[in-house]
Amino acid sequence: MFPMILAALENDEDRALMEELYLRHHRLMYAQALRVLNDSHAAEDAVSSALEALIRKISLLRDMDGNKRKAYIVITVRHAAIDIYRRNSRETVTEDEFLEQIPSDSRVEDRLLESAGVEEIRDAIRRLGDRDRDILMMRYFREMSDREIGRELDLRPTAVRVRMSRARKHLVMLLQGREAER
Q1: Is this prediction's pTM over 0.70?
Q2: Ranges 3-7, 11-15, 138-142, 162-166, most confident
Q3: CATH code assigned at 61
Q4: What total of structural domains would you count in the chain?
Q5: What's the per-residue H, E or C state across the chain?
Q6: Segments forming the whole domain that contains residue 38
């Protein structure tokens, strides 16, 4: 694949520079892409995409010193890998399906909340800040979904999950005797 990409370059100096960069940084580029994608074929695709992007920026690369050039290459391949990851994720799993797979609560928090008495939990909820108290009330007393809470608070479901997790942690801290009042 790389020789075909090089063929796109008309200038011999540019071709030599890209070949040198590829030979010098291929392992690093591949490792960065593999770290994001966890798939060797997709990582190679990311390296190829990054090389195409780098060729379009050859004049910029020519003017950079070695460390800046290396950093630019790493960032470019990382972005190419992330783009491939996003593209593959959209094809296989929707955001809602992905969110359903993520456990929203930790086992330790669950055990502590289950072992606490009703009065103890009620007292701790009263001591929480308004934001934490509201989101916990919506979930556990009004039995609202992430999407419903998000509509009411003008938040995305992912933000609701983050806030819910933080509110539960604050509640657990209060139940354990560590102050988390806001």
Answers
A1: no
A2: 162-166
A3: 1.10.1740
A4: 2
A5: CHHHHHHCCCCHHHHHHHHHHHHHHHHHHHHHHHHHHCCHHHHHHHHHHHHHHHHHCHHHHHCCCHHHHHHHHHHHHHHHHHHHHHHHHHHHCCHHHHHHHCCCCCHHHHHHHHHCCHHHHHHHHHHCCHHHHHHHHHHHHCCCCHHHHHHHHCCCHHHHHHHHHHHHHHHHHHHCCCCCCC
A6: 2-92
